[in-house]
């Protein structure tokens, strides 16, 4: 006589976990929800303050142009740190990229200029990899050295390359050709008309659509494709899994037959290539040519955006857009739009404080509430923001967001650690 085995039942703990998971939004869903909340907050601030330029297509286009070089630098940092190598030298690699773009674009055109910038950035990345991976130099020391060397080399070679050219000089190149731009017929005109109507949320969304469909640089499209491609390569391929294992547990990766040195070297070199592309974008899209010092610390900001984004492509793009938006608002309308942003920051921090209290994070809630109250007081007692402070706005915003987001960050486990072959034994 046969008996039928009872159907297996799931453990109560597993059932509870499944219920909790099913009640949550996916990561992508949360990002869309956050983006909608930000759009509504900015639209409300525009209506209340009358700062119509806050979400105009021009401001958003300037924000994208300001954000892309930072996102490319952050993308370079992501490749490097996911393999376990801290790359403080992103700023220097961007500097080399601006120089390569200036020289090769002048003589060979835009696309060869892009390749030249990537090549110059790759040289900086390879030097950093040689020092940190092969010779086990401290990552911070090597990165700082790369920044110093790159600035000096760029200043010297700029004088050699451009001093005798018409329109050039010892510190800058002549005006250079810009990459071709893309406009989507129909959508660009329709969205521009709708953005001018001033409707709540609808016109703000139309301004964003116009910024993404009218006169968009081909370099912008390429950069966004590379950000999406990085997410696919690092999280959906065997190569990406092996590379990330080198940043999480290199000794374990070694025992599985992975050549940790090779993956680290490739990742840091690719990091330099992305930073070089960011420098090229600065020279050819954000401005009309090479100039000494035009990176302006964006390599460091890219590293901060990557940390804010929790070492993920989507997160670093969000951090870059945050910096880019504050920069675009400052450039387009100066103190008026920045003053309107104070209201957004104040209300956002007060809402965040309430959420932190509900979560039991009382210390963080007090800090958020204090900063939010100070921002609200500043907004209420002033009509505009001094010009000197608007220059600082993007950097202050970056520091504030990093401070508030620090509790949820999780870096790769072996990031910044020296690795020598044979440690597993």
Query: What is the element string, with H for helices and E for strands?
Result: HHHHHHEHHEHHHHHHHHH
Helix content: over 70%
Structural class: mainly alpha
Strand percentage, roughly? under 5%
Count of DSSP E strands? 2
Structure description:
This protein has a two-stranded antiparallel sheet with strand order 1-2. It is 72% helix and 1% strand. The longest helix has 27 residues, at 260-286. The relative contact order is 0.16. Helix 3 (57-82) packs across helix 8. It has helices at 12-22, 27-49, 57-82, 90-108, 110-134, 139-162, 187-195, 202-213, 218-236, 238-248, 250-255, 260-286, 298-308, 313-333, 335-359, 362-381, 387-405; strands at residues 181-182, 216-217. It is mostly helical and 425 residues long. The chain has a domain at 52-181 and 216-326. It contains 17 helices and two strands. It is globular, with a radius of gyration of 24 Å. Mean pLDDT is 88; it is low at 1-23. The protein starts with 11 loop residues before the first helix and ends in a 20-residue tail after the last helix.
């Amino acid at each position: 006589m046969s008996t039928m085995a009872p159907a297996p039942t799931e453990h109560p703990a597993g059932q509870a976990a499944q219920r909790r998971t099913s009640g949550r939004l996916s990561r992508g869903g949360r990002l869309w929800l956050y983006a909608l909340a930000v759009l509504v907050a900015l639209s409300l601030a525009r209506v209340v303050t009358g700062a119509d330029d806050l979400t105009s297509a021009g401001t958003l286009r300037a924000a994208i142009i300001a954000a892309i070089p930072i996102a490319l630098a952050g993308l370079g940092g992501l490749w490097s740190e996911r393999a376990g190598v801290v790359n403080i030298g992103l700023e220097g690699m961007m500097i080399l990229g601006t120089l390569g773009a200036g020289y090769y674009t002048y003589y060979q055109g835009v696309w060869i200029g892009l390749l030249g910038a990537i090549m110059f950035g790759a040289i900086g990345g390879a030097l950093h990899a040689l020092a940190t991976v092969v010779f086990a130099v401290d990552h911070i020391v090597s990165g700082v050295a790369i920044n110093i060397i790159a600035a000096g080399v760029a200043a010297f070679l700029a004088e050699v390359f451009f001093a005798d050219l018409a329109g050039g000089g010892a510190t800058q190149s002549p005006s250079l050709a810009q990459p071709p731009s893309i406009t989507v017929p129909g959508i660009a005109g329709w969205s521009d008309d709708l953005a001018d109507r001033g409707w709540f949320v609808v016109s703000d969304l139309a301004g964003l659509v116009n910024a993404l469909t009218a006169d968009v640089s081909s370099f912008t499209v390429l950069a966004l494709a590379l950000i999406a491609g990085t997410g696919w390569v690092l999280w959906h391929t065997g190569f990406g899994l092996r590379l990330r294992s080198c940043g999480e547990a290199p000794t374990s990766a070694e025992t599985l037959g992975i050549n940790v040195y090779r993956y680290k070297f490739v990742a840091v070199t690719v990091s330099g290539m992305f930073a070089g592309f960011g420098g090229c974008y600065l020279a050819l899209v954000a401005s009309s040519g090479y100039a000494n010092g035009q990176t302006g610390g964006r390599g460091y900001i890219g590293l901060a955006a990557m940390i804010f984004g929790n070492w993920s492509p989507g997160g670093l793009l969000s951090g870059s857009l945050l910096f880019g938006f504050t920069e675009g608002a400052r450039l387009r309308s100066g103190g008026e739009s920045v003053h309107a942003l104070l209201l957004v920051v104040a209300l956002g921090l007060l809402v965040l404080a309430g959420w932190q209290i509900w979560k039991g994070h009382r210390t963080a809630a007090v800090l958020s509430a204090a900063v939010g109250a100070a921002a609200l007081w500043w907004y209420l007692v002033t009509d505009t923001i001094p010009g000197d402070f608007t220059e600082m706005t993007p950097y202050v915003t970056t520091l504030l967001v990093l401070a508030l987001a620090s509790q949820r960050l999780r870096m790769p486990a072996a990031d910044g650690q020296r690795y020598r072959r044979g440690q597993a034994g």
